[in-house]
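Hi R.,

As promised on Friday, here is the backbone we talked about, encoded as structure tokens. Could you run it through your design pipeline when you get a chance and send me back a sequence?
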């Protein structure tokens, strides 16, 4: 199996694994995290497989821009006017457990810094 056919998030995008959709367009898919760390916790991914932030290039960086356009749309859609946090974990030491670039959108509670 290659990386993309074995990727959890690619399988979610393909509809092979169920998820609770929050947002979708031609480039981006967002769904509810199954282990939320805030009252609102979405996972936002580009539909195209990119392993991590280390794999962002001039050729695929437009997809990351689409992710952040989706963040703004979701924030409006979900009335997150009090604020939110967007988190990307990269690599083992960064806490990345699924090797498909993804962004956590957390909201609806006071998010302290540094996180604990």
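Update: got your reply. Pasting your designed sequence below so it's all in one thread:
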């Amino acid at each position: 199996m290659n990386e993309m056919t074995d990727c959890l998030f690619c399988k979610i995008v393909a509809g092979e694994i169920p998820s609770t959709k929050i947002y979708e367009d031609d480039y981006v898919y967002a769904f509810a995290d199954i282990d939320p760390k805030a009252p609102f916790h979405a996972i936002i991914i580009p539909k195209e497989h990119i392993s991590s932030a280390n794999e962002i290039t001039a050729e695929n960086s437009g997809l990351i821009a689409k992710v952040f356009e989706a963040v703004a749309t979701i924030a409006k859609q979900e009335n997150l006017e009090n604020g939110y946090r967007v988190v990307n974990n990269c690599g083992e030491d960064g806490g990345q457990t699924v090797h498909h670039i993804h962004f956590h959108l957390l909201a609806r509670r006071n998010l302290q810094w540094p996180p604990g």
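One thing I noticed while checking it: The chain has a mean pLDDT of 94.

Thanks again,
M.
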